[in-house]
Amino acid sequence: MSDDTVVVWDESLLAYDMGDHPLDPVRVELTVALARELGVLDRPRVCLVKPEPADDALLTRVHDRRYLSAVRAAPADPLFAGFGLGTSDNPIFDGMHEASALVAGATVAAAEAVWRGEARRAVNVAGGLHHAMPAQAAGFCVYNDPAVAIARLLDLGAERVAYVDVDVHHGDGVQRVFWDDPRVLTVSLHETPLALFPGTGFPDETGGPGAAGSAVNVALPPGTGDAGWQRAFHAIVPSVLRAFRPQVLVTQCGADGHRLDPLADLNLSVDGQRVTYLALRALADELCEGRWVATGGGGYALVEAVPRAWTHLLAIATGEPLDPATLTPPAWRALAAARRPGSEVPLRMTDDVDPSYEPWQPSGEPTAVDRAIAATRKAVFPLLGLDPHDPRD
Where do the record's region annotations for Disordered lie (predicted)? Predict the structure, then answer.
C-alpha cells in the first residue's frame, strides 16, 4: 500500500451551486485556498486527482433510474415538481445532474484509490452529501456521494465498511441505503432529531432485521460543547468500530456543529473538530491499516469555521497536523474578505478552546450528554456483543 494521500479536487466541483442558498460553494473554494496557502497541498506525498463524473451504472447502485432522469430533466422544465426537487432546500439549478455526478465521482475516486492501495488516505472536501435518498433529493443533497462510494467499495470486494458521520445533522440517507446490509456499519453523532432536521437518528434506530447493530446513533442535546461531544464520541465510536472490525473507514466530516454555524445549535470549536479528525485517523490506522476516505459535508459559517476545520482535516489526512496557533495567511484573509464582504475573517487556525474531556462513566449524576450516551449504548452495544455498562467497552 502506498503512503500517499489523494486529494480529489478540481474547480469544476464548485459547480454544485444552488444559488442564493446556505450551501454556498465558497466554503469549499476557501478551504482549498487556505490549504494551498499553508502548503498542505504541496506536501511530498500528496497527489491531486481530477475527478470524473459518476456514470449511471455507479449512481444506480444507490439511486433509482427514474430519479436520475428527473434530475437531468428538471432544469429545462420551469414547472417541474417532484422527487424533492424545486424546494427551498433543494432548488433546481442549471447543470444539476452533471455537478452532482461530479461530486459523487470525486468521492468514488477517493474510495477506489484507497481500496486499490494507491493511497492510504483520500479526501474529497466537496463531498459528504449524506441526506439524498434513493429517489429523492433532501437536505441540500441531490446524489448521495458517500453511499455511492461505499457501494463501489462493496463491489470491489470490501466485506466490512464503517461509515462515521460527525455532521450536526443525522446521516439519514447513508443509513437508509445500508439499513439492511450487515457489511456496512453506519455511525452518526448529531444534534437530537427532536430539535433539528431531518428528524431521524434516535438511539433505537439500530439497523434492519438482517443487520441488527449495523446502525449507531448518538443524539446529542442542543448546546453540547467540545467536552461533551468528545465524551460521547470516545464512549461509543471506538468500541463499535473495534467490534465491527472494518477494512476501510469512510467519514463525513461536516463542520456545522461549530458554535458559529447559523443552522444548528451545538457549541463546538475548530479545536474540537481538529481533535476529532485526529481520532478518526488513529482509528483508521488501528483498525484498517490506515485506509481512510474522508469527505466534507455541512457547514454554513462559510468564512469563520468551515475553511479552517477542513484545512485541519486535509493536514491530518496528508501528514503532520497543523499547529492550532498557526496564523491564517494574509493572502487568504484578503480572498475571504473579498468573497464574503462583512464576514469576520479568522486570524488564526484556532478558537483558543481546550477540547479536553472527562471519559464517560456509568456512575455518578448523569448530565444530558451522559443520558444520550447511555441511551445509545443500551440500544446497540448488546447487538455488537458489548457491555453497555462497562466503560472499557
Answer: 343-367
